[in-house]
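Researcher: Good morning. I'm working through a list of sequences from a screen, and I'd like to move beyond sequence-only analysis. For each chain I'm collecting a predicted structure so we can compare shapes side by side. This is the next one on the list. No need for commentary yet; just the structure.
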Amino acid sequence: MVKSPVFATIVTLICFDSGFMTLKTYKNITPTLGKNCYVDSSAVLVGDIHLADDVSIWPLVAARGDVNIIRIGQRTNVQDGSILHVTRKSPSNPDGYPLLIGDDVTVGHKVMLHGCTLGNRILVGMGAIVMDGAVVMDDVIIGAGSLVPPNKVLDSGYLYVGSPVKKARALNEQEVAFLAQSAQNYILLKNEYLQEQH
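Model: Good morning. Structure tokens for this chain:
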């Protein structure tokens, strides 16, 4: 029986309304979730992805662990419209570039993370791009719309802005404290969303 596109759309919407998550298997590997994770029904996660406990993935996030792995640490949130991808292994780069995100990271709306490594307690501002091989150390703020070029290392404890990013200044105590608080705010929010599903 051939189903029309309209029928497919209706089925999809029904699945979304009932809390369906789009976790897609690729090469026999399906994304795995830790305890108390929230994945919005409009997000798509593919392949070798692991979310640690209390991670939240918000509407229209696309994450593909197809040619390398994606690992997201505890209490991290990935906000609406963000794109997460990786770089394949090759003779010139035997390990490729996985996407590794630490604990208590806030990934703002429409961020692009591609084959990079993020430490703990980081805020990636809205619309920022972090490229292959870049490393962001702990306790960093990346300003909205900034570009972190390939293989760039961002030192701990600073605000970075611009395209390409430049070190703007050291973070003050309140800003450092806010990094962990931002993650906690999203834990409270995703818990409310999880309650709504029951």
